[in-house]
Write a structure and sequence with these properties.
Helix content is about 30%, strand content about 20%. It has an 8-stranded mixed sheet, with helices on both faces. The chain has a 7-stranded mixed sheet with strand order 5-4-17-16-18-19-20, with helices on both faces. Strands 21-22-24-25 form a 4-stranded antiparallel sheet. Helix 3 (about 30-40) crosses helix 4 (about 40-50), helix 5 runs parallel beside helix 12 and helix 6 packs across helix 7. Bound molecules: 5'-O-(acetylsulfamoyl)adenosine. 5'-O-(acetylsulfamoyl)adenosine binds near residues 412 and 500.
């Protein structure tokens, strides 16, 4: 770590909003928290009124634990809120998406363009027999037709289920069958790191066992050879192009489902998380506006997630469009053609708000400062992080190397199930602490509880729970009410349990500590994976780290660490000792890893989360569990063989 970074990272260094940032920010004082506390339901109703409703609700909230209904009786359409109302207000010529293909091809779609394309696609879906309430699976790469397809479903009241365009035929098939989707929207092939991934071939394999699918709509993107099944498969350009450019939007009930999104969960079959119409759109629009301090006339916003992940749903499609943002959307990987692609793109479109994941940030750190240094990043004014705890080291690097020590970094905690951001700073009002997601947003209540469900005082650590409903909360698990109750509402009576551990410091700031299933018990001490990993990554030679608990006859569990080094550093026995001592120095001897294995990469999901479950399988010498959601399944196999041939060090 450079001296300058070290200085910024000094224990306790905090980052108050700068005068310049506050001057232009939507919220620059903490009053909004008091407003929300005073009348939280009224506060949410006030946010809901930012949307266009065909009919206003008669009841803000009906809470029949664990089932919430928000804005009951209200009627609206999501696609009208995302498109028509902006065009009607005279913003038709504003760019909604600057789309950048991986190979450098570009398209700009204005709000008028989007509206026309969404209407055509909606009409095409109707012609193919899709009706209100039907489920439509979407299996595509990051092309503009993906948000268009989502919005077309929303327009006609069909429920979309986006399946990440990198999942296997088996995953696609399971998701289609669970939702009983009647149609599938896909493309011939998608671009990734310069080559074509044959999506349609995966689709053909999956559809052999998907009896409910009557029609497939196929976008031509990569012009790879595909087999079209007569009667079932239709080319997008043949069916969509001639459709009428207007399509009356279906007037939906606030509580009608908008989409299903599957999460893999820890065991067994994926859960179809169901999201609503009115409550969902209210909270994604509200959080997108205030967390990102969005100024629709001047900002250029870029969220680097994939639409197949909830972050893409809420913060590429629905939140940004509801707020009339101008966004960048990128098709490919960050290292194509070179490792500066993101920074070249920020410079090219003068991106002002940039939202990405800690795993990406740590990868950029690993690659080195030279790549961001090649570009003028002075358009940036705000940075965001989501997906995992961001360790202070990565936060400070992001702040400095990308944000030029000028941009607040908002760490946003939320889940597929919460639908929208729950814990995050408001960048014009909150003093930031690197590594802390800061506070529950106005309108949101979060608390830390102990094993018996009692609230833990400040400061204190325990389980993160949400004691009252919020508008964008999941409305259930598709077709499985019992699983909804069991998974989220059974551990602590009357409270939603998020599955994460967290602590507050003496000023009440929230610090997320990782999944409680991952928390280790060493000689009777609970040790969080996040804290040990942060301590490892604090060492200047370490780029990334994952730790797991491994059964140990003396201590109950021992800590096994998997570490990736930064470019230019080599592993050695002496270095293992140095790292173990580094952790001992920062946390205490109890947290010293028993073993450290150096690896080139860590097993991660497509959305960038480290899969500790698989590392635990490796450490315990068990058979590997489900690896289908891994970005690169070969990584874990290679770690396994290296782990078995390395002798763990003993103290
Ligand atoms: C948005 C998303 C949810 C899980 C969640 C956490 C972890 C996400 C943060 C975070 C610490 C964060 N949805 N997580 N964001 N942990 N700080 N800012 O990621 O359903 O895919 O995952 O991700 O464990 O429970 S998700």
């Amino acid at each position: 770590m450079s001296d300058a970074l070290e200085a910024l990272l000094q224990e306790g260094r905090t980052f108050a909003p700068s005068k310049e940032f506050r001057k232009q920010s939507l919220v620059s004082s903490a009053e909004i928290y008091d407003d929300a506390d005073h009348d939280w339901q009224g506060f949410w109703a006030h946010q809901a009124l930012e949307l266009d409703w065909h009919q206003e609700w008669h009841t803000i909230l009906e809470w029949d634990l664990p089932f919430a209904k928000w804005f009951v009786g209200g009627k609206l359409n999501v696609s009208e809120n995302c498109l028509d109302r902006h065009v009607t207000a005279g913003h038709g010529e504003q760019v909604a998406f600057h789309w950048e293909g991986e190979s450098g091809d570009v398209r700009s779609l204005t709000y008028s363009d989007m509206l026309v394309e969404v209407c055509r696609t909606a009409n095409a879906l109707k012609q193919l027999g899709v009706a209100k309430g039907d489920r439509v699976a979407i299996y595509m790469g990051m092309v503009p037709e993906l948000p268009i397809a989502m919005l077309a479903c929303a327009r006609i009241g069909a429920v979309h289920s986006v399946v990440f365009g990198g999942f296997t035929a088996q995953s696609l098939k399971d998701r289609i069958n669970d939702a009983q989707a009647v149609a599938l929207i896909t493309q011939d092939g998608s671009w990734r790191r310069g080559s074509v991934f044959d999506l349609k071939a995966v689709v053909d394999e999956a559809l052999i066992e998907c009896p409910t699918i009557a029609k497939a709509l196929v976008l031509q993107r990569a012009s790879n050879d595909v087999v079209m099944t007569p009667g079932r498969d239709h080319w997008w350009h043949e069916v969509v192009a001639d459709q009428a450019t207007e399509c009356a939007a279906e007037v939906m009930d606030s509580e009608d489902p908008l989409f299903i999104l599957y999460t893999s969960g820890t065991t067994g079959k994926p859960k179809g998380i169901v999201h609503s119409t009115g409550g969902y759109l209210t909270q994604v629009a509200y959080t997108h506006k205030y967390v990102f301090d969005l100024h629709p006339d001047t900002d250029v916003y870029w969220c680097t997630a994939d639409c197949g992940w909830v972050t893409g749903h809420s913060y590429i499609v629905y939140g940004p469009l509801a707020n009339r943002s101008t966004s960048v959307m990128y098709e490919g990987t960050p290292d194509y053609p070179d490792k500066d692609r993101f920074w070249a793109t920020v410079e090219k479109y003068k991106v002002s708000i940039f939202y990405t994941a800690p795993t990406a940030i740590r990868t950029f750190m690993k690659w080195g400062d030279e790549y961001p240094l090649r570009h003028d990043l002075s358009s940036l004014r705000l940075l965001g992080s989501v997906g995992e705890p961001i360790n202070p080291e990565a936060w400070v690097w992001y702040y400095k190397a990308i944000g030029g020590e000028r941009c607040p970094v908002v760490d946003t905690w939320w889940q597929t199930e919460t639908g929208a951001i729950m814990i995050s700073a408001l960048p014009g009002a909150t003093t930031l602490k690197p590594g802390s997601a800061t506070f529950p947003l106005p309108g949101i209540q979060a608390e830390i509880i102990d094993d018996s469900g009692k609230t833990v005082g400040v400061p204190g650590g325990g389980y993160l729970a949400l004691p009252r409903p919020w508008p964008s909360m999941l409305r259930g698990v598709w077709g499985d009410e019992q699983r909804y109750r069991d998974t989220y509402w059974s551990r602590f009576e009357g409270k939603y349990f998020a599955g994460d551990g967290a602590k507050t410091d003496d000023e009440g700031y929230f610090w997320l500590l990782g999944r409680v299933d991952d928390i280790m018990l060493v000689s009777g001490h609970n040790i969080s994976t996040t804290e040990v990993e942060s301590a490892l990554v604090d060492h200047p030679a370490v780029a990334e780290a994952a730790v797991v608990g491994k059964t140990d006859s003396t201590t109950g569990q021992a800590i096994a660490a998997f570490v990736t080094l930064r470019a230019g550093h080599d592993p050695s026995d002496a270095f293992v000792e140095e790292l173990r001592n580094h952790v001992a120095k920062l946390i205490g001897p109890i947290a010293k890893p028993q073993s450290i294995l150096f690896t080139d990469d860590l097993p991660k999901t497509r959305s960038g989360k480290i899969m500790r479950r698989l590392l635990r399988n490796v450490a315990e010498d068990e058979q590997l569990g489900d690896t289908t959601t891994l970005a690169d399944p070969s990584i874990v196999a290679s770690i396994k063989s290296r782990y078995l041939s390395a002798a763990p060090s003993e103290d």
